[in-house]
Amino acid sequence: MFQVASHPTSFTLPMDRTSMPAPPSLQLPRNLARPAFTEVDRNVITAIAPELASVPFEYIRNHLAGQAPEMLAAVSLLSIPSSLPRARLPSSLDAAVRPSHHSPPSSAYPTHLLAVTSSKTSASMPATPTAASFATQQAVSSSATAPLYPTHSLVLAAHCTLLPALPPSRPSNKATALNLPIVPITVPDSATFPHLHAYLHTKRADTLLATLLPSLHQLLPSASSPSSSSSRGYISQFTSEKLLRLAQALASTAYAQAGPQGALQGLMAHAKVVNNLWKNTCALGIFDTELWGVMDLAWEIILAALTRIVESQRQ
After folding, report:
1. Which terminus has fewer CB within 10 Å in the chain: N or C?
2. Distance CA 27, CA 131 (A)
């Protein structure tokens, strides 16, 4: 497992983390370790948007989260394939722009396409996302495809301390198409990358938590707006009592759907998703407090649910 150095943080779950042991006989870490904190590179941000040279990082991130609806609307107007063959990736793609009576501002349109694949490195040594590591994987499996994700370079630069700077994106001269550079990258787990990528753009902690724990969707509180979710207010709603009720509901649902052995397997699958999201977060060097709070919370709920199932089998 990818082990990283502990990073002190002001965020704490509303419970004594030592009061709930890891599930007996299950090989899971008690906590999700954190890498040493690193701030994003100011030079990378100013290369994209010189007008932000003296703007505080947190203000930039909050402003970008507020632009999420326009960004999503802009992406919906583009004709982009969901994936392309990894062995024949072009350097860029002309994405057709569908006409609309309510066109978003030009700044809302994506600047790049990320072609994402999973790295094959050891779980304890995940590679920092690079085009070079992608090329290595490409040689291993030339027939595979890479999913494409429209992205905004400023959003990535404002959050990802370990992602290399993306190549410059130039405005297209075509009124009906947008030329988007294709950037191949590898991450520890490509399956959970879209969840992380979506969160960086929308900062919706409630949506991310519901994605990690889909069977609890109706029991989870909703954020009133993306901006409120981007604060620490969403995670602070989860008291010790609420966390334990959610764990009981998760265990009961898993047991009802698959029985005792199937319940363990289902909960371990949830744990794997959270663990893979954590690996991607570490590999990209993301230190968003609310993101880490969601991962910690989901991990606590899953561990508590696993403990209940294991203990029920021993009775």
Report:
1. C
2. 33
pLDDT (tens digit per residue) in 83-129: 999 988 999 999 999 988 888 898 999 999 999 999 865 555 455 67
Instruction: Say yes or no: 156 and 207 in one domain.
Output: no
- Cβ atoms of 151 and 197 within 8 Å: the answer is yes
User: Whole-prediction pTM value?
Assistant: 0.85
Residue 170 burial (10 A CB sphere; 0-12, 13-18, 19+): exposed
Name residue, tokens 């996302």. Answer: 129
**Burial of 240 (C-beta count, 10 Å sphere; 0-12/13-18/19+):** middle
- CA 13 to each of CA 36, 50, 55, 237, 266: distance values in angstroms, whole numbers, following the listed order: 20, 38, 31, 10, 24
User: With 0-12 CB in 10 A as exposed, 13-18 as middle and 19+ as buried, what is 206?
Assistant: buried
Q: Does 175 lie in the same domain as 68? A: yes
Pick the last residue of a domain from 187, 220, 251.
Answer: 187
